[in-house]
Amino acid sequence: MQWTKKRKQTITLLAFVFPALLFYAVFMLAPAFGGIGYSLTDWNGLNPTYHWVGFANYTEALTDDPYFIKSIWFTLRFVAFMVVLQNALALLLAVFVESRGRSKVWFRTIFFMPNMISMIIGGFMWLFIFTKVLSYIAEHSGFGFLDQSWIGDPDFSFYAIIIVSLWGGVGFLMVIYIAAIQGVPQPLKEAAAIDGANTFQTFRNITLPMIYPALTIGIFLTLNSSFKAFDAVYALTGGGPGRATQVIALNIFEEAFSFNSRYGYASAKAMILFLIVFLITIVQLRFMKNREVEA
Amino acid sequence: MSNPGTRAGERQLGRRVGSAFVFVILLIGAIFTLFPIYMGLLNSLKTEGNMLSNILSFPSRLEFGNYADAFEKTDFMRSLGNTLTVAAVGLAGIILFASMAGYKMSRTPGRVSGFLFGLFVLSMLIPFHSIMITLVKIAKELTVQGSTIGLGLMYIGLGVPMAIFLYHGFVKSIPRDLDEAAVVDGCGEIRLFFVVIFPLLLPVTATIAILNLLWMWNDFLFPLLMLTDSDSYTLLLSTNMLFGEYNNDWSAILASLVMAMLPVIVLYIVLQKYILNGIADGAIKG
User: Fold this and answer.
1) Which of A103, A119, A172, B14 has its CA 20 to 30 A from that of B69?
2) What is the mean pLDDT of residues A85-114?
3) Chain A hits for B130, Cβ within 8 Å
4) Domains of chain A in sequence order
């Protein structure tokens, strides 16, 4: 009796889960595990047969592919800038917006707006700003320094990519930080004020430790999205000039779908990307979870 | 110096200066945020010549020709229809299948249930770029590549994990007594779910609908890989194509950019309270 009831329960469970599992298995699990398999072969788009090559693709990607290695360094630099700037700006805006009265809603609405827009659209609009508007402003005003080769010169296009990515991403984190700040118990802040703490001290010693869990999430989300950055770079520079601003995702995309259809080799690069993101986010979560305080 | 009145006065002055400083910073931030959108909108209403000679000024005469031009070149109605088809198929599947799975896994104790849930959560760390190559191959074999409905079906597979995660958590807040009472009343499993449970999931369903709609509407790389024929292009793909073909005709491009983002901006302004809450909920629980 007990056994049959349990069995019936399991069957109902499977029936409810089956449709989701089917789509998930076919379009997510199969390509994920298939990708691991193909990364060990010389599969390409031109030849229907392929052979096992072991870890040759991985060795080639990490030792013999200067563009890929360069794209890893470029991405790491981009991620480092984004983690610091995006979280600092989002936190600053969250604190400032929360301190406003009636204008709070307006600022929140405006700062979040770019998140509604695809980074492809946003990237093209910024391309217009960088290539047309800034040079116009420089020509017709004193701000001569604005007239740079923002897109054509890799030194500047790195910052162009950072600016556009911040524009698109800060508002999202700001909303998360605002929610966290609103969760800080008011009596704690009042107690600090009575003890003579100024605004900055209250923030440093009360608010910041209390919203530490949100900081963990914010940095996790930034790491995750910056390592996968694609749209903004694609729209702004297309990875150029040459391949100077190529991020890892763009390098994989070109390897597989633009240049030579080396699917097996590109799969190995895709696995390397996965491993980098996985390891760094695990380390980050471990490190930051350990430092969270109890309220 | 030791007069308490002056000190209080000083502090109040300091607070006011601080408040003004904060306001100025926020204002600069807001201008920076809106600047590209404003410039895009402004210059999409000028002729090319008018734009180049005076890029910052308000158009002397509103020029809607660019919109007519972009409307035609991007085949706007068809692109919009394609985007809506993809999003509708994906959204319907994600909500229906994820709510069923999330509810039942949340209600069933035991190892099977835990294993299945873990299996879904596992994938939330896998970047899309790591599966895309093999996914293209699978899509070709299943002949879902190249069709908008096929793309919508694939979005179901990619979208259910996060939706299941959110449903799984939300179901815990619905009392079990409800299920039991319904079963005592002779209600079957399927009716129980659709008639009693599903309506109660509405708040989290709204969050999931918003998050997924935005994702599918703004996603670029996945459609780029899957929709190879320009007849099935989504709005973003048509805009991208227009950019590639006429990359110096900025006024037409800007008009197409404005048209592609207008639907989401309108949606945002109408539903912003729900969207902002949904984002915060989704991110913190996800």
Assistant:
1) A119
2) 91
3) 32, 35, 270-271, 273-274
4) 56-291 (1.10.3720.10)
